[in-house]
Design a protein that fits this description.
By secondary structure, the chain is of the alpha+beta class. It contains 1 helix and 3 strands; from the N terminus they run H-E-E-E.
Length: 68
């Protein structure tokens, strides 16, 4: 895997799984102008870094799985 996009998320009370759903919509329906990658799809990883942790989520056919 390699990083294809990096950005800052707005502060939210959403769970990290909900954030993954928002990112899925964003990178499939409303891509940022500076994004040059492919649509977010099955087998892609999303990394979400917070002030206290680094979280990785695997995009599966039926949702998201926390990897580590």
């Amino acid at each position: 895997y390699e990083c294809t996009y990096e950005g800052k998320l707005p502060d939210t009370e959403s769970s990290l799984f909900q954030v993954c759903e928002v990112l899925y919509y964003l990178f499939n329906m409303n891509r940022p102008e500076d994004f040059k990658g492919h649509s977010l799809s099955v087998s892609d990883l999303v990394e979400i870094t917070t002030d206290v942790s680094r979280n990785f989520y695997y995009c599966d056919r039926s949702g998201w799985t926390k990897v580590f």
